[in-house]
From TrEMBL:
Molecular function via GO: hydrolase activity, hydrolyzing O-glycosyl compounds
Superkingdom of the organism of origin: Bacteria
Keyword Hydrolase included in the entry's annotation: yes
Gene3D superfamilies, per database record: Glycoside hydrolase family 3 C-terminal domain, Glycoside hydrolase, family 3, N-terminal domain, Immunoglobulins
GO BP: carbohydrate metabolic process
Family: Belongs to the glycosyl hydrolase 3 family.
Native source species: Gluconacetobacter asukensis
Protein name: Beta-glucosidase
SUPFAM superfamilies on file: (Trans)glycosidases, Beta-D-glucan exohydrolase, C-terminal domain
Keywords, comma-separated and alphabetical: Hydrolase
C-alpha cells in the first residue's frame, strides 16, 4: 500500500498523468495524499522567473503561498521544478547548482512549512546519462534545506534507467548524504504485460532507489503491485528487507513534511481553479531583467501628443492591452498599436511612433520586431518567454531589451512601473543567454561552457542592468574558517536613485581539477540608497569549494591556491584575491538546513 501510487491519466487530447494518489494506510494513521500534475496547478510557476530574483526569502514565501492553495484543493504533494534527478534542460533547471539548489530548496521549505510534501523533479530526459556533478550538488543543497522533501522521476514508460543518474547512487544518497526520504517514479503508460520486460523494469526501478511507483491501470497490475509482491515472496529475487526500507523512506518524508500529523482535507477533489499567485507582482518586480538600455530609452514617458505605443505580437496581444492600461495608471499616455500584417508596409501608427514597446513571446515575432526597429523609432522589446537560447537578429536595432519571463497574471502594473521608472530593475539572469550559439560542451553548465571555450555569450549568467543606480565594490578579503571560507567586501551605490544589487562571488578552480575555470559560490542581494555603502560577509562551505568523493563519502577540497572573485555578473569580476587552502574534508551528511 505504501509503495504504489494510484494515477489517473490526463483527459484526451492531453498526455501524461493528471492525478496521483498515495493511498496511505488509514488504520496505521498514515493519510492518503494527492497531487495534481496539470498545467496551471499552483506550484508550477516558472523556475527561471523565480531564480532571476536571487531572493531566497521570496522563494520561501512563494512556497508558503503555494502550500495554502494546494491544500485548499484537497492536495498535499507538489512537484518542485528547476531541480531534480532527471535533466530537463536549462530553460527549466537553470544552469548553476548553487542558485537552483538554494532557490528551489527554499520553495520546498516553504511548502513543508505549510504541510505539503514537495518532490524535486518531474518530467525530464531518462536514459543512460550519469548524474552530473552540478545536478548532484544542486540536489544536495536543496535536500539539505528542505528536510523531508522527496524526489520525482516522471517518464513515459518504466524502462532502462528510468531515473537516469540515480541508478548506482544509492550508497551516496543513503550512506553518504544520510538521505532518508522517498524517491517516486510515475509513468504515463502501463508497463508492458510481458514477464521478462516487467522483471527488467522492476530491477531498473529498484537500482535507481525508487520507493514509490505509479502508472495507469488497476493497482494490482502496476509494476509495484503484483510484480513487486511476487518478487518479495519467499524465494523471490527482492529481499523483504528492501521493501521495509522503501516503506520507511515514504513514511519519513510524510512525517518530516508534517502531513502525517496535519493530513489534508480529503473530500471530493475539486477541479483546479484559476490560481492568481499573490506574489506574482513581487516576482516581476525583482525578477525582470534589464538587458539593454541604449540612448537612455528607459524610463519611458508618453504624452497625449506622442503616447507610448504598445504592440503585442502574436500571442502577446492580450498582454499588450494589460500593459497599455497599466501605463495609463502610471500617468503616462499610452495606446495599443493596430495589428501589423505578416508582410507589407507597417500601419501608419507604428511607422510614425517615437517610442514603441513590443511584447514578444517567441522567435516568430522576429521579422516584425526587425521591421519596426528598422523604421527609426525608439523600440523597447519585452520578452515574455523562458528561452535562453533565443536568437535576436534585431538586437543591434533596438534601444531597450527586457526579459520579463513567462507572462503571469498580476504583472502588468509592475512592468509598467519598471518601464516608466517608478521602480528600478533589479533582476539578474539565472541562465546564460546564448543567442543560439553555445559551445559544444553540453555536459557543462552554460556559463562554465562559455568560460572554458573563451567565448563571450550574448548576455552572461548573473547579468542585469539598473536604470539609475550604479554599484561599485570595495576591497575583497577571504579567510579560512575551518572547512569553509569567509568572504568580506563592501558595496556602494554611486547612482542617483535607490537600487537593489546582487553582488556575486565566484571561485577559480585549481589547475588540473577537470572543472570549468570558475563556479558561483555565493551571493547576497542588497538594497542601497544613493551614496550608501554596506559591508557584507558571506560564508562558503566545503561543498562549494570542492568535489564529492564517492569512495570516502565526503566533500574534498584539494590543497592548492584558489582565486576568489567578486563582481556584478560572471563576466565582470572586478575584485579578486588569492587564498591557499590545505586539503579539506567535510562530511557528506545533509545539513539540518542551509545557512548563509
Amino acid at each position: 500500500m505504501l509503495v504504489r501510487a494510484d494515477v489517473v491519466p490526463a483527459p484526451a487530447p492531453a498526455e501524461g498523468v493528471s492525478i496521483v494518489t498515495l493511498p496511505g494506510v488509514p488504520r496505521a494513521g498514515l493519510p492518503a495524499l494527492r497531487m495534481a500534475m496539470v498545467d496551471g496547478e499552483a506550484g508550477q510557476s516558472s523556475p527561471l522567473a523565480l531564480m532571476a530574483t536571487w531572493d531566497r526569502d521570496l522563494a520561501r514565501r512563494v512556497g508558503q503561498a503555494q502550500a495554502r492553495a494546494i491544500r485548499a484543493g484537497g492536495r498535499a504533494i507538489a512537484a518542485v521544478g528547476g531541480i531534480g534527478p532527471l535533466p530537463a534542460g536549462r530553460a527549466y533547471d537553470g544552469e548553476d547548482p548553487l542558485l537552483a539548489g538554494r532557490m528551489m530548496g527554499e520553495v520546498a521549505s516553504g511548502l513543508i512549512s505549510g504541510h505539503v510534501l514537495p518532490l524535486f523533479g518531474g518530467r525530464g530526459r531518462p536514459g543512460a546519462d550519469d548524474m552530473s556533478e552540478d545536478r548532484m550538488l544542486a540536489l544536495s543543497i536543496a535536500l539539505g534545506q528542505a528536510r523531508g522533501a522527496g524526489m520525482l522521476c516522471q517518464v513515459a514508460t518504466v524502462g532502462l534507467r528510468p531515473c537516469g543518474g540515480l541508478d548506482g547512487m544509492e550508497r551516496t544518497l543513503r550512506d553518504g548524504w544520510r538521505y532518508g526520504g522517498m524517491i517516486a517514479l510515475l509513468a504515463d503508460h502501463a508497463t508492458p504485460d510481458d514477464l521478462p520486460a516487467r522483471r527488467h523494469a522492476l530491477l531498473s526501478a529498484l537500482a535507481a532507489g525508487v520507493d514509490v511507483e505509479g502508472e495507469p491501470g488497476p493497482a494490482d497490475t502496476a509494476l509495484f503491485g503484483a510484480t513487486l509482491r511476487q518478487a518479495v515472496m519467499k524465494g523471490g529475487f527482492v529481499p523483504p528487507v528492501r521493501l521495509d526500507h522503501m516503506a520507511a523512506h515514504v513514511m519519513q518524508s510524510m512525517d518530516e513534511a508534517g502531513v502525517t500529523e496535519h493530513p489534508p482535507p480529503f473530500g471530493a477533489l475539486r477541479a483546479p481553479t484559476p490560481y492568481r499567485d499573490p506574489l506574482a507582482e513581487e516576482m516581476m518586480a525583482e525578477g525582470a531583467v534589464l538587458l539593454r538600455n541604449e540612448n537612455a530609452v528607459l524610463p519611458l514617458a508618453g504624452t497625449p501628443a506622442e503616447p507610448i505605443l504598445v504592440l503585442g505580437a502574436g500571442t502577446a496581444r492580450a498582454a499588450a492591452q494589460v500593459v497599455v492600461d497599466a501605463l495609463g495608471r502610471t500617468g503616462q499616455a499610452a495606446r495599443l498599436a493596430a495589428d501589423a500584417p505578416e508582410n507589407g508596409p507597417l500601419p501608419p501608427d507604428i511607422a510614425q511612433a517615437g517610442h514603441i514597446v513590443i511584447l514578444s513571446a517567441g522567435p516568430e515575432d522576429d521579422r516584425l520586431i526587425g521591421a519596426v526597429a528598422d523604421n527609426g523609432g525608439h523600440v523597447v522589446v519585452v520578452l515574455l518567454s523562458d528561452d535562453p537560447d533565443r536568437r535576436m537578429p534585431w538586437l543591434d536595432l533596438v534601444d531597450g531589451l527586457v526579459q520579463a519571463w513567462s507572462w503571469r497574471d498580476g504583472g502588468g502594473d509592475v512592468l509598467a512601473d519598471l518601464l516608466v521608472g517608478q521602480r528600478d530593475f533589479s533582476g539578474r539572469l539565472p541562465v546564460t543567454f546564448t543567442g543560439g550559439m553555445a559551445p559544444p560542451q553540453e555536459h557543462l553548465a552554460g556559463y562554465k561552457a562559455f568560460d572554458r571555450a573563451h567565448v563571450a555569450p550574448l548576455f552572461p549568467f548573473g547579468y542585469g542592468l539598473s536604470v539609475r543606480a550604479r554599484f561599485t565594490y570595495g576591497e575583497l578579503k577571504a579567510t579560512r574558517d575551518g572547512s569553509r571560507l569567509l568572504v568580506a567586501f563592501s558595496v556602494t551605490n554611486r547612482g542617483a536613485a535607490p537600487g537593489r544589487d546582487v553582488p556575486q562571488i565566484y571561485l577559480d578552480q585549481s589547475e588540473g581539477s577537470g572543472e570549468a575555470p570558475k563556479r558561483l559560490v555565493g551571493w547576497r542581494p542588497v538594497q542601497l540608497a544613493p551614496g550608501q555603502t554596506t559591508h557584507l560577509t558571506l560564508a562558503v562551505d566545503a561543498r562549494m569549494l570542492g568535489r564529492w568523493n564517492p569512495a570516502t563519502l565526503e566533500w574534498m577540497v584539494p590543497a592548492g591556491d584558489y582565486g576568489v572573485s567578486l563582481g556584478g555578473h560572471s563576466a565582470n569580476l572586478v575584485r579578486q584575491v588569492m587564498i591557499h587552502l590545505p586539503d579539506l574534508h567535510a562530511p557528506g551528511a545533509l545539513p539540518d538546513g542551509e545557512g548563509g
